[in-house]
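Hey,

Quick one before I head out. I ran the complex with zinc ion overnight. Inputs first:
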Amino acid sequence: MKEGLHKRIRAELDRRTAVANAAEADAPSPWRYGIASPRYDAIMGRDKRWVLTFAHHYEPSTFVVAFAELHDPADALRRYAGELEVLERHHPIIGDSEYCAGHLDLRLTDCPELKSLASRLGIEKRTLDS
Ligand SMILES: [Zn+2]
């Protein structure tokens, strides 16, 4: 059997979770915007270490600030945990089976939940067909 869709999604979620865990260790959530020094504003972690800095002459848009605050490592880890739960419900029935345990009558490559996960993770359509 080819490197399956399920394994590709798992590998991508594992990679992203490792990055988010490393970011959380380096700059703990929540991330908030504030004055970091007399010369800089910054997105800062809970420990007030700077994650992203902005010189006072450059004011980031409120959308950029809101986006960074919404997508801190804790947010990413919550999303990846939820996606792993979906992935666990839609695993191969047995071993290397091509059929989904969540749908029984569908191949993994036809499982709408796996297709949705793949899409959200940026796994290209051509890899779904292989
Ligand atoms: Zn399924």
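Residues 5-26 form the longest helix (22 residues).

Talk tomorrow,
K.
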